[in-house]
TrEMBL record, chain A:
Pfam families recorded: ABC_tran (PF00005)
GO molecular function, one term: ATP binding
PANTHER family per record: ABC TRANSPORTER, ATP-BINDING PROTEIN
Family: Belongs to the ABC transporter superfamily.
Protein name: ABC transporter ATP-binding protein
Record domain ABC transporter: where: 9-234
UniProt xrefs under Gene3D superfamilies: P-loop containing nucleotide triphosphate hydrolases (3.40.50.300)
Automatic annotation (TrEMBL), chain B:
Keywords: Membrane, Transmembrane, Transmembrane helix
PANTHER family: INTEGRAL MEMBRANE PROTEIN-RELATED, MEMBRANE PROTEIN
Species per Swiss-Prot/TrEMBL record: Paractinoplanes pyxinae
Protein name: ABC transporter permease subunit
UniProt keyword annotation of Isomerase present: no
């Protein structure tokens, strides 16, 4: 394997031990560029601690978290390499949004004009001269994204960015992050909003109790865990259809609302079997497993307060 | 340099600086009036029950040159208090307003951030020094002529005192940043610094007075180890009888600035920011 570039995130046997709590426990995973990676886990799973170690804010007890093979502190120009949105409320209450961004520009050696450009990008231009304390939670999230984009970085890291956004805001962010990944950037998004992640992420990294539970492309993780797709069938002639399907090696499970859930065969085969058996169908629908079920299955018993 | 610029930008873009300015101006005016009043009070009568050293000290303090250095550095006490608090707040506000994350993401080398904060504190110290000094150069000459002492601006000792006064402002700024790192809570830092600075220096003077009266005279020489006494000593015009030489005051202050500076940087590098 060739040496990873700085736009690839490499977490290698990362561990953080607080006094009594092992917040992150021997965690290893990789995040590739050009894709949106969802970093999922119940509250307290160690997601934020992992991101903070990756960004040099928290010192790991053991292991490393790097960009390629470089630590965040060792990046020659971190603001142009990596943008991060860690908490929505991290600006001075009495400072305007524009000045918050200009402050970062000055420290990072970027021109002040970048502040206005990113404000425009996140749609905050009308509120640029308003003080931070007057911002709604959604506006604070947008300002955080603007701050992360100041250096036009190759890697974007967001911790629970959907918190506090309204449906329109969530959709806006989803489109933005997909577009950024489409430009070849690396996008790592932590969240516990699974429905949202299913729409947004290409890959997922699932953690619980500080340990890696599962990593891979969303479709693969869903496929593996829910035993493939299932088909929901509704018919007034349940015994006839069950008999017809049993010849196809399908597993048929009656569900509470009177419909049948079929595993092991595709919708087309079921339709054909029904047609040849002259069975009347009222509904025939393919259902893919959803991330929420998979997630709950995977993290069952591991969540909870530690 | 751009980091110092960024730190100063942070101070400029909140309402803190003009609040501190509004507090400083009346306090400056009050200290100028008090210094004027003290200078015109005159020497105590010979039978007033003061010791030889004390009366020598008082006489020395009333020499025109010492009156001049005292007046031309008016506002030092409160000016330095403001610089001390502003410098501490430069650090504590990062934690109070949760901006430390943004700051250390932008500049992951934390020693650079702390160095920039020291730089910004020095600039702030010099700015406040410049304001009080300009005001003094405007208001003190008329006061001096009112005291029949002449402006004394031709005396090198006066300019040396003004220069050393600048050094005091700078060193207290550095001390403030160090203190801000050590006491991370904004409210605790401002209260502790203000109280120790204002009441503490009076209390310390009293304690040292009692100790030297009832225990041993040499103890009073240790008073210079207290930062406020040290900066007072540093700017006095000529060497006053019964006090250590001026440079001792400077050395003590530089020492404190270096210790808090290094300790502050070391602590900031080690800490987890969460």
């Amino acid at each position: 394997m060739s040496a990873p570039g700085t736009d690839e995130i490499v977490v290698d046997h990362l561990t953080k031990q607080y006094k009594k709590l092992r917040a992150v426990d021997d965690l290893s995973f990789r995040v590739r560029s050009g894709r949106v990676t969802g970093f999922l886990g119940p509250n307290g799973a160690g997601k934020t601690t992992t991101l903070r170690m990756l960004l040099g804010l928290v010192t790991p007890t053991a292991g490393t978290a790097t960009f390629g093979n470089q630590k965040y502190v060792d990046l020659p120009d971190p603001v142009r390499e990596v943008g991060a949105v860690l908490e929505a409320s991290s600006a001075h209450r009495g400072r305007t949004g524009r000045n918050h961004l200009r402050m970062i520009c000055r420290a990072a050696g970027l021109p002040d004009t970048r502040a206005d450009e990113t404000l425009e990008m996140v749609g905050l231009t009308p509120a640029a001269n308003r003080k931070f304390k007057g911002y709604s939670l959604g506006m604070k999230q947008r300002l955080g994204i603007a701050a992360a984009m100041l250096g036009d970085p190759k890697v974007l890291i967001l911790d629970e960015p959907a918190n506090g956004l309204d449906p329109e805001g969530i959709r806006w962010m989803r489109d933005l992050l997909k577009a950024l990944a489409g430009q070849g950037r690396t996008v790592l998004v932590s969240s516990h909003l699974l429905g949202e992640m299913q729409l947004l992420a290409d890959d997922v990294v699932i953690v619980a109790a500080g340990k890696l539970i599962r990593q891979g492309p969303v479709a693969e993780v869903l496929g593996d865990m829910s035993g493939g797709v299932q088909v929901r069938v509704r018919t007034p002639q349940v015994p006839e259809l069950t008999a017809a399907l049993s010849e196809l090696d399908a597993t048929v499970t009656p569900s509470e609302d009177g419909s049948l859930v079929v595993h092991g065969v595709e919708a087309a085969a079921i339709g054909h079997a029904a047609f040849t058996a002259r069975v009347e169908l009222h509904e025939l629908a393919t259902e893919r497993g959803d991330l929420e079920q998979v997630f709950l299955q995977l993290t069952a018993g591991k969540a909870g307060i530690r | 340099m751009s980091l110092v610029n960024a730190e100063l930008f942070k101070v400029r873009t909140t309402s803190l600086w003009w609040i501190m300015g509004i507090i400083l101006l009346p306090l400056y005016a009050a200290s100028l009036l008090v210094n004027w009043a003290n200078s015109s009070a005159g020497a105590p009568p010979p039978d007033a029950g003061v010791s030889d050293t004390q009366s020598q000290a008082i006489e020395a303090a009333l020499e025109p040159i010492n009156v001049a250095t005292n007046l031309y550095t008016s506002g030092q006490f409160f000016g330095i208090l403001i610089v001390l608090l502003l410098s501490a707040i430069i650090v504590t506000s990062e934690f109070f307003h949760l901006t430390a994350t943004t700051t250390f993401l932008t500049t992951p080398r934390r020693e650079s951030v702390i160095l920039a904060k020291f730089g910004a504190a020095i600039v702030i110290g010099l700015a406040v020094w410049l304001i009080t000094t300009v005001l003094n150069l405007i208001f003190v000459p008329p006061i001096m002529s009112n005291l029949d002492l002449g402006s004394q601006l031709g005396e090198p000792a006066v300019w040396r005192a003004i220069g050393l006064n600048a050094l005091a402002f700078v060193l207290w700024g550095v001390l403030g940043v160090g203190a801000g790192v050590l006491i991370r809570s904004q409210i605790a830092a401002t209260l502790i610094l203000a109280i120790t600075y204002v009441i503490g220096s009076a209390a310390v003077t009293l304690i040292f007075f009692l100790l030297s009266e009832y225990v041993a005279e040499w103890i009073s020489n240790l008073q210079v180890l207290v930062p406020t006494s040290a900066s007072q000593l540093m700017i006095s015009g000529t060497d006053l009888p019964g006090s250590p030489p001026r440079w001792v005051g400077a050395v003590v202050l530089v020492g404190y600035a270096i210790v808090t500076g290094f300790l502050g940087t070391w602590l900031t590098k080690r800490r987890d920011i969460s």
